Amino acid sequence: MSTPAAALPPRSFRDVWLISAGHGLTHWYPATFYILLPLIGKELGLSYTEIGLLMSLQHVAGAISNLPGGMIVDSFGKKGYLMAASLFWVGFPYALMSLTHSYWMLVLCLMLVGVGNNIWHPAAIPTLAHRYPQRKGLVLSFHGMGGNVGEALAPLAAGALLAWFSWREVVVINIVPGIVMATLIVLMVGALATGREGREGHVNAGAEGPRFSARQYLADLAGLLRNRALMLICVSAGFRTLTQTGLLVFLPVYLAYEQGYSPIAVGVCMTVLQVAGFIAGPIAGHLSDRIGREKVVLSSMLLTGITIIGMVFAGRSLLFIVFVALVGFFLYAMRPVMQAWAVENTPKHLAGTGVGLQFTILSIGGSLAPALFGVIADTWNVYAAFYFLAGTIIVANLLVLFIPAGRGTQGA
Fold first, then answer.
1. CATH at residue 137
2. What is the domain count for the chain?
3. Is the pTM of this model over 0.90?
4. Helices 136-161 and 318-344, interaxial angle, to 10°?
5. Which domain holds residue 268?
6. How far is CA 89 from CA 38, 92, 162, 291, 320, in A?
7. Looking at the domain assignment, is residue 285 inside a domain?
8. pLDDT tens digits, 158-170
9. Could you give the residue ranges of the DSSP H alpha helices within 162-262?
């Protein structure tokens, strides 16, 4: 006879730290690539538009693979092993880039990364949200912090390595932390995949009926698409991701091309962005658990738009770094809050699919950002493209106003 959920002992945060550390690696490789991108762009003679298309195609691959990724998680159920597989799939294509001299081979490698990265979130986010139901915002902020740590350390490491090695050598050296972390995840996540999901009545752990019905799954998916609150949250988050992706891709390029920053200086600026996000995540997550998701998201989005404009006006002054930190703080503050809000509006047995749907829309936003930014920068100038990003976060804010009152609008 299974132990009732109410009788289970309080959970430690061990699973939170473990999964968050794995999440950090999934962000380490893209953050390294953003620092290498200006060098790759110069070697291959790429325009802003070509750089934008390169990154947009990566997100297109992610958009196509997100929903199937969520379906695999809900039907397979072994979330720990799926996370480990995702870690391998994210790191390996970056290593292949050392061998390429072709623009389209580079595109292929990045599209493979886009596919592999999209197993992680449907497995990790529902696992954390359902294990800590009263603290969703906080634990998902720690998960987000793992990504921030990866994104903060990677630019510094890449910038330092570029002082001694070429970018091709750096991507080979960069395999080492991936191998170490992937091994740790395989060894330590096994318990997460085998022992404990069954005692919580996970949808895939019981013995009632068939594990997967395609007809029922499609009916449930149609129900998610008719869920107005969930869809508005996802679309708003998609505009937020559009803003974030545009900054992550083109802020290093802007600093290198327009401001003449060295690779290590570019790395410092990107680290400042991530450190600010690292600080913001737990604050926003805790506040959203207490006062409601909507208030935190609205204020964070408004201040993100204001600080992006301030960053553009600051130019090469020290104030520019201050505005970069503020953009990182407010932009990343809302990420775990919106993830928790989406999970609250998704049936538990469709948790992986709900996250897959959310990240499909995020990937669409991410795929549009680099291409649009590149075209605007080449047609007018790079400053007009940054104003465009400020406008996208304002659109995201307006969409939040139309989300029906319910879960996430009031604090605990």
1. 1.20.1250.20
2. 1
3. no
4. 140
5. 13-200+213-400
6. 24, 6, 25, 38, 36
7. yes
8. 888 888 888 888 8
9. 167-173, 175-188, 190-194, 214-225, 228-257
